[in-house]
Structure formats: C-alpha cells, structure tokens
C-alpha cells in the first residue's frame, strides 16, 4: 500500500534520479569533448612540414626538446611537428609560433650522443589542428583535434595516380642508391596517401606551398595540384609558374574570407 508519505518519498527519489541522470548526461558530454580534443606537445621547426603518412628524421640538440622527446616516449604520447612562423610583433622578434595545421607522430630515439643530443625518427600518425595553448614552459603543449579530409565521391585512380607513382619511383631511383633500402621503402607505400604525402615532403621545395598542401583537406584537389606542379614523371622540381599561381590564389581566398 502506497501512503501519501511514501508517495512523497518516491516523488523525491524520482526527482533526485532525474538530477543524477542529468548530471550523468553532462559527464558523458564532457567525456566526449575530452575524447575529441587532447593535449599535444608541439615542436615548431622553420621550413619543416610534416605529413601524416611519412616518417621524419629529426636531430634534437636543445635540452628542453630532448626532454620533450623523452617525456613523450615515457608517457606514450604523440608529438606535433609544426612549420614555425615568425611573430609579427616587434616585441617578439626572433621568436616563432607553430602553424595551426600540422602533422603528429610517435617519436623513436635512434641514437643518443654522449653530449645528450638525439637522432629521432617521428613516425607519422595523423594531422591535427591546434586549438589553444595549454602550456608554454618548459615546452609548448596545445589542446588539439584531429584534422581529417572531407568525404569525397571521387575514386582515386587513373593516369594522374600512375604518373605520381612513377614520379616518386623515379625520384627514389635517383636519390636512394641502395637497392635494398629503395625496395623496402617502396613496399611501405601502401596507399595513394603515402605516395602523395612523400611527394609533398621530398619533391615540393617551397615550404609555404608544402604547408598549403598539408592544410588542404581534399585528396582529389591535392592530386590535381601535384599533377599541375609535376607534369613529367622525370621532373623533380615543381613548376614555378604554377607555385606562384597557387599561392596568389590562396592570398585572394584569404582576403575574401577576411572581408566576409
């Protein structure tokens, strides 16, 4: 038998239950937010653009960055390698800030010298967008999120893909003289993403253009751009007229975005 007193108790319990469920929902949302964003140590390097499907050798001399690498390894964390940009303000001359879009990867120490410097290989795992600074000292840590390509209906095949594969094969033949190393590297080129990223890394000499290619979130467009830059599979330097046109177009796009 449910008395008025017990009914009042159940009403309070139900109300409290709704509060608990509501609090749980908030916690789930916060957990999802934390899963979508993460803390990431960032190493800005002038003129270096790191692509997700590549591996980057880095020589670390400064003790702060040596500690950063060792911290990342001990904590099983990734590290972002970002193209360094100079600050515009006079008060910060000589200092650098990271580009917002950059590559991240897992560091592996190949060799530690007696003076403490490190030879490190960064194995690419993804591309990120840096959101906000969470730590300045002793080294940069940013809140970041994964930066993915947009979904596209185009299928990546045809003569343009074959030309890019041939371009990279020809470049390897010329620059990697050891046949075993060359074949081993070629076997690691599993997808068109690996081919495109390594062409961007090895053959595109203009650092600002490499950054534009990294920031582009359409594989179809990146293939078109590289095909315009390298018309011949034996051409190992981008066409300057196309580089200037791409950069000029990007400036117009940026101006248009700012104006709106």
UniProtKB/TrEMBL annotation:
Domain of life: Bacteria
Pfam family, one: LON_substr_bdg
Classification via PROSITE patterns: LON_N
SUPFAM superfamilies: PUA domain-like (SSF88697)
Coiled-coil segments on the chain, per record: none
Domain annotation Lon N-terminal: ranges: 40-234
Entry protein name: Lon N-terminal domain-containing protein
Protein species of origin: Halobacteriovorax marinus
Lineage, highest ranks first: Bacteria, Pseudomonadati, Bdellovibrionota, Bacteriovoracia, Bacteriovoracales
